[in-house]
Amino acid sequence: MLKQIAGVRIPDSKIGREVTQLIRDTESELLFHHSVRVYFWGSLAGNRMELNFDPELLYTAAMFHDIGLTARYENSQLRFEVDGANAAREFLQGHGISESDIETVWNAVALHTTPGVPQYMRPEIALVQAGAGMDVAGRGYDQFTDAQREAVTAAFPRETCCNDGIIDAFYQGMKHRPDSTFGTFNDDVLAFKDPNFRRIDMCSVILASRWNS
User: Fold this and answer.
1) Nearest C-alpha neighbor of 33 from the set 165, 187, 189
2) Could you tell me how far CA 192 lies from the centroid of its own chain?
3) Which residues pair with 4 in a beta bridge?
């Protein structure tokens, strides 16, 4: 795999090599490429903002951030983000990483679909969300140069059907646990793909609570 793109280097460490192989063996090519691009977008954004971040922690979080969508979690009822965060924690615990750094990676993975919070946390947490937002929804697209966008997507292509493909990957990873999407925008995916899906209405939950019985 290429080691450096647009001035950003993939960590060439034992952890970096092992996490690359683990995710390559676990995820589809679409999700694998997406995860690597999230690292590059996050790193490029961090460099642009002159943030002090740990590339190895950012890379690990970016690579684990969607592993919870894969078939190994087809029986889980947790949020897929939590499955990914737990997997990252287990991986890092086996490599002697400090609990503080493990907590950073856990939060980066667990909170990457939670808007309005990660940008106020440690840089690695903020940058995983920023990278994911750029790759999936084009958030911050114009803050990257044409050369940066072209270099990253040339190395790790966005498939022609990437938008439909990523939506389907999200759906396949969450359709068996619809309740886990409550309180996130993940329920948009289920509503888009499944005409029978019904969102949980928080106002109805409040009005039907035991406090009103």
Assistant:
1) 165
2) 20
3) 9
Contact 62, 38 (CB under 8 A): yes
State both tokens at 187: 């329920």
Q: Where are the alpha helices (DSSP H) in 79-122?
A: 80-93, 99-110
pLDDT in tens, 153-187: 999 998 755 778 999 999 999 999 999 999 889 99
Task: Report d(CA 206, CA 196) in Å as an integer.
Answer: 23
DSSP state of 45: H
Cα dihedral: 79, 84, 87, 88 (round 10): -140
| Cβ contact 77:175 at 8 Å | no
Q: Average pLDDT, whole number, for the chain?
A: 95
Cβ atoms of 31 and 24 closer than 8 Å: no
The tokens for 12 are 């060439």
Sole residue written with tokens 């009822």: 77
Cα torsion 133, 134, 138, 144 to 10°: value is: 150
Instruction: Give the rounded percent of residues in the chain with a pLDDT score beyond 90.
Output: 92
Which DSSP string do the residues of 57-89 spell out, in sequence order? Answer: HHHHHHHHTTGGGSGGGTT--S-HHHHHHHHHH
Nearest to 98 by CA among 195, 8, 208, 15: 15
Tokens 């979080």 label which residue?
61
Q: Tell me: the pLDDT tens digits for 118-161?
A: 999 999 999 999 999 999 999 999 999 999 999 999 999 987 55
One-letter amino acid at 67 equals I
